[in-house]
Amino acid sequence: MVESISKTRVSDRAARHVVRDAFGPDARLDSVREFHDGWFNAAYELVLGDGRALVMKVAPPPDVEVLTYERDIVHAGIEALRLVRENTDAPVPTVVWTC
Question: What is the rounded distance in angstroms from the CA atom of residue 72 to the CA atom of residue 23?
């Protein structure tokens, strides 16, 4: 992982908890792989027991001091994806879960 105060490390146990919270108690996480690119959010590939591969982006904890425009940047990205999806024909990833 690129070292940055804004990147949150996620354990396998925490990733399993996210998967169960997002997809139900029977959802199974087969693997977690950290993406090493990027500078702000941490990102991981999650492969579920049913074969789906997903990207999980993790924002910094609220107590980490960031620049004003970086606050809640993950949700701003989700909103940008929604706007692109609604207003263009560009392919946009589907957001399946947020918290």
Answer: 24
